[in-house]
Write a structure and sequence with these properties.
The protein has 337 residues and is mostly helical. The protein is built from 12 helices and no strands.
């Protein structure tokens, strides 16, 4: 065989090795960066705890189990609203509105287990696989998640910036500019959503040989989603307040929206930091920096970690219930209708 022939024969293998080698390298880099961020945050909290050791030494946990249970219930209800919104969106894009609230709860809460793997695609991949059992295309699932993500991010930033203007004077004029820009982008998202999205879909269909269905999202649905996310975040903030009371932290009800601001903004930053699983470490760090401006050192150090444990407990409980229901009702193996 000639030199050219040998090259042609081995090219596909070489190409395969090269592509998979790059993917493996990127995967290792992602894990390394994720671990590095978590180590930095752990060290940061360790140093803060150490520097405030005397103050924390005199702090005594005054556990009130009834408040903790109330916090757990309120936060669970707030998390279930995600499944409700996703169900509405997906049923809007399919001809047969065959996705029940129970199915949405099972799939969403079971797929949430995968968000603690570095990167944000794994949960969506699981949703695509399981919703396909119900005859829902991957494009409809991805588009519904895209609409939901944009809506909750907008609401979260609004709820983070508005209270921050009051509690963090250092924000000053910057917060007003951010709010104005965000408001303009949100109005474009609501009133020009279908036009922009369908233009993008037509472009993909034409240049990438796809047959993605043109989708339409009513303005009323987008506004309703943001209102529901507003209710959801208020419930999450209330759950955080009851959690603080349940472990004896000194935070007054007047600081509820300061707490809510720290929770919502830290969630956004943690969500966008794809290198950390579930925003682990990033959310706690941002929440501490914001709470440290309006509460005592015990609250600002302990509450971010306590809320992480609360979220993990709620997600674990809902995920396990979802998995048990999925097995019992055969939701992941039903034939397409």
């Amino acid at each position: 065989m000639t030199r050219v022939g040998r090259f042609i024969a081995t090219y596909p293998v070489a190409r395969f090795v090269q592509i998979n080698g790059v993917r493996l390298f990127n995967k290792k880099v992602s894990y390394f960066l994720s671990l590095a961020v978590i180590i930095v945050v752990v060290y940061f909290f360790y140093r803060e705890f150490k520097s405030n050791l005397e103050v924390l030494h005199h702090y005594q946990f005054n556990i009130k189990l009834n408040y903790i249970i109330i916090s757990f219930v309120i936060t669970s209800i707030a998390f279930l609203l995600d499944a409700f919104i996703l169900q509405i969106c997906i049923n809007k894009y399919v001809e047969k509105k065959n996705i029940s609230f129970l199915t949405s709860v099972v799939i969403l809460n079971t797929s949430n287990f995968f968000k603690y793997i570095p990167g944000i695609i794994w949960g969506y991949t699981a949703q695509i696989l399981w919703f396909s059992k119900k005859g829902i295309s991957k494009y409809e699932v991805l588009y519904a998640n895209f609409i939901c993500s944009i809506s909750v991010i907008v609401v979260s930033i609004f709820l983070g910036i508005i209270p921050a203007r009051h509690y963090l004077p250092i924000m000053g004029f910057k917060s007003e500019v951010i709010l104005l820009v965000l408001l303009i982008l949100d109005l474009l998202f609501i009133f020009c959503n279908s036009t922009l999205t369908n233009f993008l879909i037509m472009f993909i269909n034409r240049f990438f040989n796809r047959e993605i269905q043109i989708l339409h999202t009513p303005k009323f649905l987008l506004i309703s989603m943001q209102m529901i996310y507003l209710i959801q975040w208020n419930l999450i903030g209330l759950g955080g307040y009851f959690l603080a009371q349940g472990i004896g932290l000194d935070i007054s009800f007047t600081h509820l929206y300061a707490l809510l601001a720290s929770m919502s903004l830290s969630w956004v930053i943690g969500y966008l930091s794809v290198i950390t699983p579930g925003g682990l470490g990033v959310r706690e760090g941002i929440m501490y920096l914001m709470l440290n401006q309006v509460t005592d050192v015990q609250t600002s150090l302990i509450l971010p970690i306590a809320t992480r444990f609360l979220y993990l407990l709620v997600e674990l409980s809902l995920g396990c219930i979802g998995f048990i229901l999925a097995v019992k009702l055969r939701l992941f193996s039903d034939p397409l209708e």
